[in-house]
Structure formats: C-alpha cells, structure tokens
Amino acid sequence: MTQYxxxxxxxxxxxxxxxxxxxxxxxxxxxQKAMLDALGVERFEPHAWYPQRLILRAxxxxxxxLGARGLERFGRQIPALVAFPPGIDGAHTVLSKLDTIYxxxxxxxxxxxxxxxxxxxxxxxGHYSYERAGEREALMLCDNPYPCRFDMGLVHGxxxxxxxxxxxxxxxxxxxxxxxxxxxxxxxx
Length: 189
Fold this sequence. Notes:
- With 189 residues, this protein is of the alpha+beta class.
- Helices cover 37% and strands 20% of the residues.
- It has six helices and eight strands, in the order βααβαααββββαββ.
- The longest helix has 26 residues, at 52-77.
- The protein is globular, with a radius of gyration of 16 Å.
C-alpha cells in the first residue's frame, strides 16, 4: 500500500483522531496554518468528519515539515483521543482491538466502517492485524495508507497506555516508506 494514497473513495476520518496535530502545532502558527491549509479548512472541528485524502495530505505535510520522527511522535499521542470499544484492559487487549478502533474512527459514504453489535467491518482502509508473540510481546501488521512511522508511534501509544516501558521495532522485510504494501512491527514490554 502506498503511503498517503486512499485505498477507496468516500472515506472520512473522525476529526478527534487528527486534532492532536492541530493542538500540538498551536505554538507554531506557520506549521498549524500549513496543516489547516492541507485539510482545506480555516478552523478544525474535532467532532467533524474529514475526507481521508485530506487527512493523508495533512500527514504528508507533517512528514515534509517535521520528518518521520514528528509523525511518530504524533502517532503516540492519538490513542488518548480516539473512541474505544468496551472491555479494553491491557496492552494485548488494546492491540487485538486496534483494527476495530481504527474502523470505528473511519466512515465510508457516511457510515461508520464497523458495526459494534455484529462485528461486521466495511473494507476500504486496510487493517491493523495483531498476533500475540509471547506474554509481553506482540506483532502488528499494518497494511493501510497511513505512513510507517506514524503507525510505529500509534501502536506504541496504544500499548503504552497500559505498559509504559513498551518498545517498538520494525521487522525486516517490506515497508510502506520504501514502496511496500505493509509494515510489521514487534512490540515488547
């Protein structure tokens, strides 16, 4: 999957998941303006839905202005802002539910991409696939249009809500930053 390119048309992203960019950049008015320009708005509303193509363009702008480390830092801050389904009580649990959380914060043609009552998921944004690799270790396979380093920060942030000492490494092989279709991360704590 190519970074920054939507996988399907008519995908929207819940604004709360991106508000961290806007909030953090308040102290850098030029950077904040660049983000708002990329989103095509003068004012960001965290409870609005934004076209994914514009969100991806804004993330790309962060990458260009602040680099991959900036993306990773922002990714770490997202988990505090997203809607969580009930029953999440540890790092393994949150990582196993990450794909659900991801789909809960995206919509296609105005309909949220997962029905929590049935578990039915709408395709079109890729996935976060979890595998338990040990008592204090997990693998996350990410095949979505978001940037690699953002996802590294994101999985770190989710696991870190429960395990402060989490470490994330990119496994060898494919990487979306190098034109691959997916990235595989190993988390340990």
